Amino acid sequence: MTESSLSESPATLHVDLGERSYPIHIGSGVLGHVDSLAPYLAGRQVMIVTNQTVAPLYLERLRAGLPDGLEVREVVLPDGEHTKTLESVARIWDALLEAGFNRRCTLIALGGGVIGDMVGYAAACYQRGVAFIQVPTTLLSQVDSSVGGKTGVNHPRGKNMIGAFWQPRAVLIDTDTLATLPPRELSAGLAEVIKYGLIRDSAFLAWLEANLPALRAIDGAALREAILRSCSLKAKIVAEDETEQGVRALLNLGHTFGHAIESHQGYGKWLHGEAVGAGMLMAAELSRQLRWLTQADVSRVEALLQSAELPRFAPADMNLEDFLARMRLDKKNIDSRLRLVLLRALGEACIHDDTPPDMLEEMIVSFPRQ
Ligand code: NAD
Ligand code: GLY
Hints:
CATH topology of the largest domain: Dehydroquinate synthase-like, alpha domain
CATH architecture of the largest domain: Up-down Bundle
Shape: globular
Helix content: 40-55%
Low-confidence stretches: 1-7
Radius of gyration: 20 Å
Number of strands: 11
Strand content: 15-25%
Bound molecules: nicotinamide-adenine-dinucleotide, glycine
Order of helices and strands: HEEHEHEHEHEHEEEHHHHHHHEEH
Mean pLDDT: 95
CATH class of the largest domain: Mainly Alpha
CATH superfamily of the largest domain: Dehydroquinate synthase-like - alpha domain
Strand order of the largest sheet: 1-2-9-6-5-3-4
Number of helices: 14
């Protein structure tokens, strides 16, 4: 992290959902400030949930940012996408019940998207719903998963198949936490950043083309700008369509193919952002075959992925049926009709439920393998 972000004061965005509206605070050092957390606590009982990787890095800093006089408990879960299960969520519920926490407790999710999704789901169900705060510490969770209230866990048959919409009370993004993020995880987060440009903002796409080297180098000012622009786009879309009846589905660009890759490979082998990266290129290629994108457009998408150091090929061991079987389970499908997010142009995504099956199958078969 360079000094440029350390001196900046936090920026605040808002997710506008009426009574359930909440702020997203983005800045350097927000984690350790009492003012960041205190306004969003429902009562005196606080359960911090994190994992074994993040706890030694940031748990103390978070605790230091809590006001005095609280009853604070912690749950430290094992790390990894394969732990995103109902069993892990049950450990959170067990800890809440053991501590005798009531409906005015607050859960704090400290970690990446895996922790955030599980803690949100635990909060949605505990005593039929308690408060929670997102403190995302990966780029992916800062630009995507912590905002918008999608919570849940994986099922062996499908990614994020068990879950609920449950909005946090606040999202606190401390950009300093990215300094410890492994480079592969940073790249995975960049996939979701690129996604926003592709679906809705061609100017942001051009900005990314110029700034990806700075983002890869963890330049504070560039990261702050990318997080702000991503969260701002996401906040608008969520405010328009909280429960994904329409426009929010566009946020799933690359995810139908990506989820198929993740679940076929075994959760955690391909990172979520990596699978989404390859999936976005597959969606771009299909959009080219529909004559919406040019070859030059597809090459631009490929170049963006390359400069983010993301995969541009599908797994070698995935055949057509491996893809199709998993894509049929996609949550966007209606009445077993496959619905894909495709690109009418760079910066303009659409939902398409009319892709000729032959064209889709031919694209999957001919898409380059690793
Ligand atoms: P993750 O939570 O597994 O975190 C990635 C790795 O980084 C983990 O090993 C974690 O312990 C470690 N880590 C976290 N913060 C760190 C830090 N500051 N320094 C060093 N290491 C750190 O993965 P992710 O990419 O954050 O999130 C992926 C998950 O998010 C997937 O399960 C995906 O389905 C979900 N997701 C949800 C939504 C949503 O809207 N709810 C959107 C996108 C993705
Ligand atoms: N990441 C997709 C969504 O939040 O809708």
